[in-house]
Amino acid sequence: MAQRLKVVSGDATPPVWAALREEAARAATSEPSLASLLHAAVLAHDDLGRALSYQLGRKLGDNELSAMTIREVCEDSICGKQLANVVEADLRAVFERDPACKGYLQPFLFFKGFQALQTHRIAHCLWTQGRETLAFHLQSRMSELFQVDIHPAARFGKGVFIDHGTGIVIGETAVIGDDVSMLHGVTLGGTGATRGDRHPKIGKGVLLGAGAKVLGPIEVGDYSKVASGSVVLKPVPAHCTVAGVPAKVVNVDAYSEPARSMDHTLAELADDYVI
């Protein structure tokens, strides 16, 4: 097998992995009916990467590819410690930004936004290795299971939070920066049948509200916010909030880190600032 995902930091146990194991152990004691699952999915593994590979295999396996085969694909395809740190950052982002999240175990086992994102990360790794058919298979399974459709070529930074996940569609040439948060129904799409670079580039720390549509090869600047239900057809400056159909700037430099605060409120329309 190729290099496996292993989360290590010197000889110390990573805080996320340690917390996840502790939560799983407590849950196994308090809910014996799930003890077998908790042991198989978390407690039987030495690191977050192997646990994640098992979990994705359990979820994605079907008649075409067994759970064991998917598990081996995950372990063989994850690109070393760098991706391990990305997965840990994603898990931490869910815990820190979702007020409904009680710990790391909940998203790891049950949140389809987190699981869909990790499935995409495996598919993207396969894509970069030239294994496009298998990458498309994982994309298809992701869409079937989680109602999230992300092209394997789309690029994601770390610490990304996908809340709920249902109805998210992200195109081939989209780029999503670090620490982005997005809710259900987000589309990062094109504006026609033209090939080449045709999808949005989302900056660092951006918040994409439920049902937001960003269309075309446009940039959404760092730490900006797209309000729920908006349709964005033009570039968005950094540190701005846009809303409406088509979207207009409604606030400037009001939120330092909207993706972390998850603040979806709107200020008064900034009439003197247009895009």
Structure description:
- This protein is α/β, with parallel strands linked by helices.
- It folds into two domains: 1-148, serine acetyltransferase, domain 1, CATH 1.10.3130.10; 167-275, Hexapeptide repeat proteins (UDP N-Acetylglucosamine Acyltransferase, domain 1, 3 Solenoid).
- Helix content is 40%, strand content 14%.
- It contains nine helices and 15 strands.
- It has helices spanning 15-30, 35-43, 48-60, 67-77, 80-97, 105-110, 112-128, 132-146, 258-261; strands at residues 148-150, 155-156, 161-162, 168-170, 175-176, 181-182, 187-189, 201-202, 207-208, 213-215, 219-220, 225-226, 231-232, 240-243, 248-252.
- The strands form three sheets. The chain has a six-stranded mixed β-sheet.
- A hairpin with a 4-residue loop joins strand 14 and strand 15 (248-252).
- Helix 2 packs across helix 3, helix 3 (48-60) runs antiparallel to helix 4 and helix 7 runs antiparallel to helix 8.
- The relative contact order is 0.09.
- Mean pLDDT is 90; it is low at 1-13.
Summarize the structure.
The protein is of the alpha/beta class and 275 residues long.
Range of strand content: 5-15%
Q: Supply the CATH architecture of the largest domain.
A: Orthogonal Bundle
Please state how the strands of the largest beta sheet are arranged side by side: 3-6-9-12-14-15
- Total number of β-strand segments? 15
Residue share in helices? 25-40%
Uncertain runs: 1-13
Elements, N to C (H/E): HHHHHHHHEEEEEEEEEEEEEEEH
At the fourth level of CATH, the homologous superfamily of the largest domain is serine acetyltransferase, domain 1
The CATH topology of the largest domain, please? serine acetyltransferase, domain 1
CATH hierarchy, class of the largest domain: Mainly Alpha
Category by helix and strand content: alpha/beta
Q: Can you summarize the main beta sheet?
A: 6 strands, mixed
**How many domain modules?**
2
* Number of helical regions: 9
Gyration radius over CA: 19 Å
